[in-house]
């Protein structure tokens, strides 16, 4: 991962060195600091704005190098339009946009969060700005040893100073957001790692590092899972020389003696998916290193909850396997008995993630009696056909949980769209030879996959399944993410917990 800037907060003052970033409302409405800098430069900023026809409309920018009368190396003016109408998500994205304009080895950049006297962003907005800036600075380049001669340096500023009215409150507000941001970056790192580096055992070791944050981490080996009857999960990994693992991460923010049911998150962790005997085409198979995006999110979420000392008891469980096609691999037509006792006819070995999740779902219900379960998986290409790369597919047996997830998605920008479940789809996975088969045919593939999982969830347990195949990896670049792995879901689920389940 590339080096990230050190982010600090200070009281409003005129920047004296390095790069200054100013905000401008509609009509080039600068705040007092911006007007003072314009005056000190004999009107260089306002003259440049007129020449460039810059009016301060949202997402526009004006760039001045070495302005006369100032000791600053550069002044960047960013248009925000009507700042009073900006939401916390707008400030978050603005931070990412500004960070993107600073990527050229700047030592110090000072962002003045100030507009007209009546448009001073509060501490929460400043914290969101800082979080967006930090996420946007992320780049996964640890395996690059050389740069091309004509490649411009793109390291973020070594120090990013945010000048805001109440800098002390902003610094405090950013503390929690920074924990969530670090969890997102952890998830990105895990998704971006190549599969030769990150196998099931190595992934489990990364999760084990959360013990530094007082997360209780337990790792089940294959022999442990065999005793529990996790034959569906184990069948997926039996063709690989790398042994499968189940990792249980527990954050006891309310204390181990609390009688409250824990909130539970389950992640699919197929560290590489060839498809097994039902092997995938070669083109694009390299992307299957990201088939553990659900497990990456759960690991990043547990980091976030522990790092910000969330007042909740939470459990994260990830099933880690590699799906390979050797002589021991499961075959189409095999029948396996899941931990729940239900039998599964494996029609397609490339529909493996649901086999991993079904045993993990049974485990968490028997072990933890959860308040709710949210599982995440890069489960189907069908969800990308349906929703593209901007929404994750959401399936749920509980309206309240689904509505809360939808609201949290709108607030964080990690959006979900509820998809249907129904008996008509459920019939498509009935099998002639077992209790069910693992695929339901060509049509409605994301729905039949969710129906499969639903068979392993007890009726009285609120449950939501998030198919993140289009959002956890290879999703479009945004103001806050230029990385192949997005870390999708960490901010979404942290917001769900923070708004509805902490301290209850």
Automatic annotation (TrEMBL):
Q: Which InterPro entries match?
A: Leucine_aapep/pepB (IPR011356), Macro_dom-like (IPR043472), Peptidase_M17_C (IPR000819), Peptidase_M17_leu_NH2_pept (IPR023042), Peptidase_M17_N (IPR008283)
Reaction(s) catalysed by this chain's protein:
Release of an N-terminal amino acid, Xaa-|-Yaa-, in which Xaa is preferably Leu, but may be other amino acids including Pro although not Arg or Lys, and Yaa may be Pro. Amino acid amides and methyl esters are also readily hydrolyzed, but rates on arylamides are exceedingly low; Release of an N-terminal amino acid, preferentially leucine, but not glutamic or aspartic acids
Q: Which domain of life is it from?
A: Bacteria
- The record places domain Cytosol aminopeptidase at 348-355
Q: Which cofactor does it need?
A: Mn(2+)
Active site positions: 280, 354
Q: Which GO terms describe its biological process?
A: proteolysis
The UniProt annotation places Mn(2+) 1 binding at: 273, 350, 352
Coiled coil regions, renumbered to chain = none
Sequence positions that bind Mn(2+) 2? 268, 273, 291, 352
Q: What is its EC number?
A: 3.4.11.1, 3.4.11.10
Where it sits in the cell: the answer is: Cytoplasm
A cellular component term from Gene Ontology for this protein is: cytoplasm
Q: Which GO terms describe its molecular function?
A: manganese ion binding; metalloaminopeptidase activity
Cofactor note text: Binds 2 manganese ions per subunit.
**Top enzyme class of this protein?**
hydrolase
Question: What Gene3D superfamilies does this protein map onto?
Answer: Leucine Aminopeptidase, subunit E, domain 1, Zn peptidases
Its keywords, alphabetically, are: Aminopeptidase, Cytoplasm, Hydrolase, Manganese, Metal-binding, Protease
Q: Which family does it belong to?
A: Belongs to the peptidase M17 family.
Functional description taken from the UniProt entry: Presumably involved in the processing and regular turnover of intracellular proteins. Catalyzes the removal of unsubstituted N-terminal amino acids from various peptides.
Q: What is this protein called?
A: Probable cytosol aminopeptidase
């Amino acid at each position: 991962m590339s080096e990230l800037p050190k982010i600090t907060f200070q009281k409003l003052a005129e920047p004296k060195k390095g790069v200054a970033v100013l905000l401008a409302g509609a009509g080039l409405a600068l705040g007092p600091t911006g007007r003072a800098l314009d005056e000190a430069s004999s009107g260089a900023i306002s003259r440049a704005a007129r020449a460039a026809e810059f009016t301060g409309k949202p997402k526009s920018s004006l760039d001045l190098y070495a302005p006369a009368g100032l000791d600053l190396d550069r002044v960047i003016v960013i248009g925000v339009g009507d700042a009073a109408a900006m939401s916390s998500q707008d400030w978050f994205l603005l931070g990412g946009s500004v960070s993107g304009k600073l990527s050229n080895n700047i030592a110090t950049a000072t962002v003045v969060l100030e507009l007209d006297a009546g448009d001073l962003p509060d501490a929460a907005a400043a914290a969101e700005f800082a979080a967006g800036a930090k996420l946007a600075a992320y780049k996964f380049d640890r395996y690059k040893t050389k740069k091309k001669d004509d490649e411009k340096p793109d390291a973020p500023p070594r120090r990013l100073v945010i000048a805001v009215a109440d800098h002390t409150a902003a610094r405090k507000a950013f503390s929690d957001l920074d924990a969530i941001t670090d969890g997102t970056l952890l998830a990105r790192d895990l998704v971006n790692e190549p599969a030769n580096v990150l196998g099931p055992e190595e992934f489990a070791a990364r999760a084990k590092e959360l013990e530094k944050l007082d997360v209780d981490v337990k790792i089940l080996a294959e022999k442990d899972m065999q005793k529990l009857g996790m034959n569906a999960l184990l069948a997926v990994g039996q063709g690989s020389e790398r042994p499968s693992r189940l990792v249980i991460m527990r954050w006891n923010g309310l204390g181990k003696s609390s009688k409250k049911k824990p909130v539970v998150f389950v992640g699919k962790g197929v560290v590489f998916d060839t498809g097994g005997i039902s092997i995938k085409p070669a083109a694009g198979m390299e992307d299957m290193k990201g088939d553990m995006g659900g497990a990456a999110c759960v690991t990043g979420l547990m980091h976030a909850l522990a790092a910000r000392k969330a007042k909740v008891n939470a459990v994260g469980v990830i099933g880690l396997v590699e799906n390979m096609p050797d002589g021991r691999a499961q075959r189409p037509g095999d029948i396996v008995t899941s931990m729940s006792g239900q039998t599964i006819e494996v029609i397609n070995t490339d529909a493996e993630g649901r086999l991993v999740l079904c045993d993990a779902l049974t485990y968490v219900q028997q072990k933890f009696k959860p308040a709710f379960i949210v599982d995440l998986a890069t489960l189907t290409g069908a969800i990308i056909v349906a929703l593209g790369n901007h929404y994750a597919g959401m399936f749920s047996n509980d309206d309240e949980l689904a509505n809360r997830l939808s609201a949290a998605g709108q607030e964080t920008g990690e959006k979900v769209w509820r998809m249907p479940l129904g008996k008509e789809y459920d019939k498509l996975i009935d099998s002639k030879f077992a209790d069910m088969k693992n695929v339901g045919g060509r049509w409605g593939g994301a729905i039949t996959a969710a129906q499969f999982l639903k068979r392993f969830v007890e009726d009285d347990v609120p449950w939501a399944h998030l198919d993140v195949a289009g959002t956890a990896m290879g999703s479009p670049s945004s103001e806050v993410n230029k990385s192949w792995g997005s870390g999708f879901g960490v901010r979404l689920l942290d917001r769900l917990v923070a708004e509805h389940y902490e301290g209850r």
